[in-house]
Structure formats: C-alpha cells, structure tokens
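Contributing new records

If you add data, match the layout below exactly. Sequence lines come first and carry their own label; structure lines follow with theirs. Keep one chain per record. Anything else will be rejected by the validation script.
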Amino acid sequence: MLMRPDPFRELDRLAQQLMGPGTLSRPSVMPMDAYREGGEYVVAFDLPGVTADAVDIDVERNMLTVKAERRPVAKTDDVQLELSERPLGVFSRQIVLADTLDTEHIQADYDAGVLTLRIPIAERAKPRKISIGVGPGRKEISG
C-alpha cells in the first residue's frame, strides 16, 4: 500500500480550492495520481507552468513532501495583464509512505509539467517462498 488512508484528504482539498491561491504559509494542494507498476509505485503530480528548479522534493522517515511554486510572468512596462485565471503561488503535497517502500532509491523525472516519482518496493516486503527443512531427527510424512 502506498499511503495510509486519510478520511480528511478530500475535505482538505476542497477547502484549499475554495480559499484561493497558495502562499508560503498556506500552500495550495496539487493534483496527483498514484499507482503500482511492477515492483514500484508511481506517483505523478500535475504542475503545469512550473519550472523544474521551482520544485522541491524531501523525504523524512516515511513522509514525502513535494513543494512547487508557480511564479508570475515577469512584469515590465510593456506588459499589461488582461486576464489571470491560472493560480500562482506555492503548491504542496505530503504523502505518508508505507514502511514497505524503499525511500532511499526514489527516482524523480519532470516532463511536460508532470513530476513523476518512482518509489521501489523494498526487498523485505516482496513475497518470497520459505522452504521447509527436514532434519535428521525428523521423519518425513508421505501420503
């Protein structure tokens, strides 16, 4: 399992959408998809209009934090803003990762406004067969 269930996640997302753009003290949430692909979990965050150098990814213990900032277009005397509907400011998302994930080997790629994190499943969490030994003092049962 990628993250622990959080019954208040949707409520938080709705509240942040209603409160407007994010600031450093109150960042907006960013939409994401999460799925398992083979031996790893993939988490994709939508960050259109954000440059790669404005994205910060941290992992502390089992808490993954992604922060990004969409900055306004550089204003000069020649630029007159007619309409501004795209949210600006700080966006943030925290995910509690399961203990079965290998946080030491997370890979991050950023392409076309989508940040993709690949988190491998730890070897200790993968299914494995346990063999049964038959010792010298034991009798083998045959049917």
